[in-house]
Amino acid sequence: MPRYVAAEGRDTGDCTLPVRPCRSIAYAQSVAGKGDRLLVAAGRYEVRTAEEIFGLTGGMVTAQGGFDRFDHFLTQDPERNATTLIGVPREFRGQLRDQGFHVVVDLKGLRPPERRKLAAFRAGYAAMNTSGGRVPCDGAMAGEFACNQVDLLSHVALGGFALEPSSANDIWGFLDLNTEREYAIVGLNNGVSVVDVTDPANPFEAGHVAGADTVWRDVKVFQSYDADAGRWRSYAYASAEAADGLVVIDLTGLPNAVSLGGTRTDNATSHNVYVSGVEYATNTPVAGWPAPLLQVLGSNRRFGAFRSYSLGDPAAPELAGQSPAESGGHYTHDATSMLVTDERAAACGSGAGTCEILFDFSESTFDLWDLSDQANPALLSSTSYDGASYVHSGWWSEDERYLFVHDELDELYQGLRTTLRVFDLSSLRSPVETAVWTGSTDAVDHNGYVRGNRYYMSNYTRGLTVLDITVPEAPREVGYFDTHPVSDSRAYDGAWGAYPFLPSGAVLVSDFGGGLYVLGDRTRDAAQGRIGFTTPAFGAQEGTDAVVSVSRAGGTTGRVSVDYAVVGVSAGPGDYAAARGTLAWAAGDAGDRTITVPLTSDGEAEPIERAFVRLSNPTGAAVLGDVNLASLFIGDPGASVTVGFAEGAMGVAADARRAIVTVRRDGGPSGALEVSYGTQPGTARAGEDYRETSGRLRWEDGDARPRTVVIELLPRDAIDALPTFQVALSAADGGTLSETHAVDIGIGGMPSVAVDEPGRTRPSAWRCGRVGYCNSTCPTCAIPRGAP
Fold first, then answer.
1. Would strands 537-541 and 629-635 be described as parallel, antiparallel, or unpaired?
2. In this predicted model, what pLDDT tens digit does every residue of 462-483 receive, in sequence order?
3. Whole-prediction pTM value?
């Protein structure tokens, strides 16, 4: 929406009429909404605050000068309609000239306090636009970023993304179970970027998919096991307020490639997406839940009401249900869901003792839908509150008894400080507001997520705010990190989204002008202790009991407890006895607790299967540690341990900066395992095409998580032929090498290895018909594109 400014205007109203423009840029910024444009007519305008400067040069509200108020701002012509800004620092002159302004660098009109603010603004603005590594929060600052109990692990500024975006928007994350690498999926104004954050201090972009230019883009992930292929399939789903449709991003090529998987166009535009029925760290289906659904929200169809899509084929979602037609002008802005298994399930229509609830945040109310019949949702309740301005989003407590609700416009329209509302969900048909938390600044609350008794809130210009919700009716701030150091105003800029579910414990934040921040949460240190697994992985053989250890560390004040549940992934409910319960510690008790999971013997020869054990809902003010999700591996009795690469050949892009190979442990999880690896030259040369790499990988007893080896690729001017090299395994201790104990890597395409080539260690797993392998016993074979 355009907002109009002219030197002869008046600072009243909302500035949306060209015949009644506002007088000052500052006032127009104060009434503008996300995605609005300021059209400024010829005249002279003094810029007196850092907030005004940032509003002109970045953020969700764009500004353009060079208009004539007498033709009702129809045509931009900076040459004829000189629009002069006085008091803007010279480093912004070029950008503002491109926006139609003439800049006079004259700061004499600024008083000393404003000059100090301007100096801080310059430093903060530079920090937002500079990528960097780890900076601890020390003395309430992490470099130029204000903070409390939250460290900066790394920062990828907008200039660090290959798409060269002008802004970022929402964010999600996931653990790729094929490789055990962690990723941030970052929405940008011109597409989606996939950033590898496995080493949180050294993130790098793994790939991207371009899209139409829009302020709004949202993304979620779904990961499912393909038993026939013996691997996981992962897809990201991106919505956009632009004619992109629903974009499906294929992540199965990770860690080396990301590609466009397809586009669903029955919704030309949509505001948001959400996947129900998944574990949020891995984005895999949760046993006991109904089938996962992709919820498309705020689309151009059916007044923007939610539309549910089956993920039976994750690459091609199919419409499975939608908000009933009688909902009229109902619009769904955001959503979340939970599975109710207590007495409240009686409110639902299934009669099965469980009920899947969809929380629908619909601008003026939040609505609870019964998804017992996924094709025919039933409305349970519709709730509003005094002063509701724009019911935006929310999340539920892990005991499923409370809902935290964000209103995006109450700070602006009602002059409030950051305000978060808490609702009691004792009755699904009549939620009751039970508390209101008020922050220390004017910054707008946007999105929030619960992990244990911590609430992670993207707080726009304040950055990330962390709340302790041990007592849900009385949240209290325990930490923050200001990703937007140029102001704490009510402007629609700063931290858009947060994602706190990575198994490593790192917290991801996307910032509109600052890009991606990877943060470390030190609010998890508590006198009552951190509760977490003693190791990230456990394992045992079928027919035995797996024993999983949980520790309480860092404090023993008071009585505390934590809930646990076994969640199957490639392992199904028939592979283990259902395990769910609560672990408790008395005051002063620091002893470990164990979870015993009986494993079923089915007598079939199977690859290693995997489940997860998840900790949640800590009580007594204890906090979940960084590792609240542990792997449980199940092996066949007596299976021999082997180690090898996930594939015998692979290609990477000609301009790739690195090649990543995956090493798998197969057979069984029992016993420790070590193996050496090293690069071997082919037509590619060490020191010219790639960096020579060697080392040793280790698995502890019970651990069967995949390992990866990262080989740095060196810059090259051009590739005349397909350079290839090899990574080989050797000296296995605790197991034997598998047939795929070497992998050939092609830079610019898949490698092709001649059968009689001397001095080569060809993967013995290659068989007739495999891509790139040809000899006299294979009358036909597949030659990959780009092979010599």
1. parallel
2. 999 999 999 999 999 999 999 9
3. 0.91
